[in-house]
Amino acid sequence: MKKLASVFAVITCVFALTACGSAKVNTLSGTPLTDAATEQSIISYGEQLVGSMDSIVRGGTIEEYSDDAVFGPALDSYENSLEDIGEVQGFNNEQAVLDSDGNYLINIGVDGSNHDADVVITVGVKTGTPSNVATNVRYTLGELMEQAGLNTILGMGTTFVILILLSLIISAFALIGKSQANKKKKAAAIQAAEAPAAAPAAEVAEEVTDDNELIAVIAAAVAASEGQTTTDGFVVRSIRKARSRF
After folding, report:
1. Which residue in 107, 96, 78 sits closest to 36, CA to CA?
2. The Cα angle at residue 226 between residues 225 and 231, in degrees rounded to 5
3. Tell me, what's the pLDDT at 206?
4. Contact of 132 with 49, CB cutoff 8 Å
5. How many other C-beta atoms lie within 10 A of the C-beta of residue 94?
6. In the chain, where are the structural domains located?
7. What distance in Å separates the CA atoms of residue 227 and residue 222, rounded to the nearest whole number?
8. What is the pLDDT of residues 228-239, one digit of tens each?
């Protein structure tokens, strides 16, 4: 019982910590700008860009920039985050550094009514135009864990559904195989029933010798040996070899 109470206490503490956790503030990695005026000018440019994106998305004119290679994806990213951000109430956590490629990397923290967010902008030093813009909402640790849990449940549910469908498909294949086998058996039985019966083998005619003829032959042979007349009136004589005169 004590162990069970300890487990529940640990779980309660974990949920309390995640609920009270604050969102992590984005920190840029790069070379800090040494000129404060240049840094402030770049940050002001970033604020104006974020303000313009907010006006375009809320004004419903985002389709006009759908073909733009940079602002099209940038506006889509901001629009997808706008519901979590809510109303923009100001800016915070503004930074500007040089990245490893020699471009300006600007972070404009958006103070939203629902969540804060970070808009990260990459600007070419020579061109002075942005090459990439991404919006990242700041979620608390509890919210991130909740999203991870929902994603896990969704993934497991999808996996179970796929496994069930595969099982049904395999079962259906087995039923189809049995049905085809039964059909083949029925067809073979019908063909066997409809086949004509084999013609009976022709009986070999037996040559029967007439008993009377056999008796007559035997009687003639006996009479010939005795020099007598047969029952039919014929005189049967034995054949004798003539003597030679020479």
Report:
1. 96
2. 100
3. 47
4. no
5. 17
6. 23-138, 140-179
7. 9
8. 555 555 555 555
Q: Are 88 and 111 in contact (CB under 8 A)?
A: yes
Radius of gyration of the chain from Cα atoms? 56
| CA 163/CA 161 separation, integer angstroms | 5
Render pLDDT for 111-133 as a digit per residue (tens, 0 to 9). Answer: 999 999 999 999 999 888 999 99
Predicted confidence (pLDDT) per residue in 164-220, tens digit: 988 888 888 777 777 777 777 777 777 776 666 555 555 544 444 556 666 776 777
d(CA 188, CA 180): 12
Q: Are 72 and 65 in contact (CB under 8 A)?
A: yes
20 Cβ neighbours under 8 A, 6+ residues apart: 142
Residue 137 CB neighbours (<10 A): 19
pLDDT tens column, 73-96: 999 999 999 999 999 999 988 999
DSSP 132: E
DSSP 235: B
Q: Which of 123, 136, 130 is nearest to 97 (CA)?
A: 123
Phi and psi at residue 117, in whole multiples of 5°? -145, 165
